[in-house]
Amino acid sequence: xxKLFDLLFRPILMPRWWQDVFISIPRIICGYWLxxxxxxxxxGLPWSPSEIxxxxxxxxxxxxxxxxxYGGIFKTxxxxxxxxxxxxxxxxxxxxxxxxxxxxxxxxxxxTMLVAALCQQWDNxxxxxxxxxxxxxxSMFHLIIGSGRFSVDYLIFQKQNFRIGILSFLPIxxxxxxxxxxxxxxxxxxxxxxxxxxxPVSTIGVRGNDSPLNWDSDFAMKEVIKDSIYTAQFKIxxxxxxxxxxxxxxxxxxxxxxxxxxxxxxxxTTNTSYKAVYNLTQENKNDTN
Length: 289
Description:
Layout: H1 2-9, H2 17-38, E1 58-59, H3 63-68, H4 73-76, H5 78-98, H6 102-120, H7 126-145, H8 152-159, H9 162-167, H10 170-178, E2 180-181, E3 185-194, E4 204-208, E5 219-220, E6 222-225, E7 229-238, E8 242-249, E9 252-253, E10 261-264, E11 271-277, H11 282-288
Parallel strand pairs: 1-2, 3-11
Antiparallel strand pairs: 3-7, 4-5, 4-8, 6-7, 8-9, 8-10
């Protein structure tokens, strides 16, 4: 029991206290990035963006399907592995900041970041892999040395009480028991676009984030007034409160180098209407009035 207790909680201390402070900085920074951004966008935390509609400790709806796409064991255990990946980022980031169960979360984090680098970002090149690789190196380092003397783990180790060590797993188990996958519902979206000037139209369509839309091809729009007004209706199965789109005219996507259009779903129904002027945002329309 003592060996297990030491393995989990006993940090390797540096000769000087300021050295422990120095090596804690990457752990705390990585923990902040993970809990405030990377993890909070996948795992429901009190500071997760409200627009993504995540309940407390919920895993975002799209994550299991993304994990499944890696194939093999990822497809067989997609929900479980999505849980563990999102949990290791969201809760693991907080644990890194506190220096709590550092070796346990370092192991989980290293596994998650290895998958992110090799399966998710490999085809995008080394530069895209760097965030995952950077957190991987920090995790591997703390997997060996632990959290240092400025941490919750060190306080538990000083108590030399195995019962306290076992009880420290309780909040981790409770979070895992409370977690689940975000529920989704089908949103029906009707969009209408007006061309600002009479323009010959050979093709016009919608592109967007959510299936059946994508950013590589048009979802065809129907003619209301030739070369002037066009409309389309599509259904999105999502847990979010919004979707993002752009219109494409004759193969050219509007709003070059500008943000995508943001459509906030109607909270009272599952039917949302959106009207726009091609290549003109609402802010630009206000400026011209």
